[in-house]
Every structure is written in structure tokens, then in C-alpha cells.
Specification:
Length: 74
């Protein structure tokens, strides 16, 4: 049986993927609402890309999307 390798992404990439800042991500990890990172070295962490994608898929539809201000005013 072949083992599938999971891709690890660094914090900078995760921030770009999800549109959140590093402090916000760490706050959500602490609250248990974001995937837990793994230590890659003394000053670096990484996340499994598939866990970040699953987290994004679990969000309510439209969560984090810009609000159309004109539609909100009507």
C-alpha cells in the first residue's frame, strides 16, 4: 500500500490562503477553532494543507467574503 504524502505549508502561506493575520490564527488555534500547527524548527511552524482546506470548507457559505455595501443599504 502506497502512503500519500501530505503537503506542509508555512504560516505566511496559511495567512495568504485564509486571509487572517498570524495573531488571529494563533488565537483561533488556542480557542480550538483552527487546525493545530506543527513545529518544524526552533522558529518555524507548518500546517497540513489538507487540514486548512477542510477548515475552509467547514465555514458557512459566504463567511469572510466582502459584503456588498449597496445591497446592504437597500
Amino acid at each position: 500500500m502506497e502512503t500519500k504524502r501530505r503537503k506542509i505549508v508555512r504560516m505566511k502561506t496559511v495567512c495568504e490562503m485564509v486571509g487572517l493575520t498570524k495573531p488571529t490564527i494563533y488565537n483561533r488555534v488556542k480557542a480550538g477553532t483552527f487546525p493545530t500547527p506543527m513545529r518544524l524548527g526552533p522558529r518555524s511552524v507548518g500546517f497540513y494543507e489538507d487540514e486548512i482546506a477542510a477548515w475552509q470548507e467547514s465555514l458557512p457559505r459566504g463567511f469572510g467574503q466582502p459584503v456588498n455595501k449597496q445591497a446592504a443599504e437597500v
